[in-house]
Amino acid sequence: MGFRIVRVADQEWRSTNPLGVVNTNLTSQLGFDDLALRLWRVSPGQAMPRHRHQFQTEIYVLLEGTGRLRVDDTLLSVEPLTSVVVEPESVRQVFNDTSGDALWLIAGVPPEAFPLTGDQHAAERDRLYPDGVEALPPELDA
Question: Which whole-number Å values give the CA distances from 73 to 33, 83, 92, 128, 129, in the listed order?
Fold first, then answer.
């Protein structure tokens, strides 16, 4: 077959990170593993974990709402349909300090797994998540 489709009604939305941000994993739902691809719905007061990657470059595309993204020490505010490319070693965090939801499409290549558990992965986890997996940005840390 020359294409695959996941209709909006069939998307599987769930929280898969420690901060409770819901997402739908388009990579697995489309059966395509050459690209990490998810939609993330960041509600007011939520943030994704502050992290970096070892190899994966990510493209962040804001689809709806007001986008707030910190890359290293630069705070970005973006409007819908704005795209941002983030290199692997840069530390990044999407968060929402507005009153409405923000919907992000985030794609990454090459796909990269995050070691979150096990003592043998502690050093790598600490490098990927320099502030831990539940750290909030200053804008949300009340």
Answer: 32, 18, 9, 16, 15
Q: How far apart are the first and last CA of the chain?
A: 51
pTM: 0.92
Domain ranges of the chain: 8-128
CATH for 8-128 (3.40.50.300, 2.60.120.10, 3.90.1170.40, 1.10.630.10): 2.60.120.10
Looking from the CA of 133 toward its CB, the CA atoms found within 13 Å total 13
Which ranges in the chain belong to alpha helices (H)? 26-30, 122-128
pLDDT tens by residue, 115-133: 556 666 788 888 999 999 8
SS3 category, 86 = strand
Cα 12 to Cα 52: distance, rounded to the nearest angstrom = 26
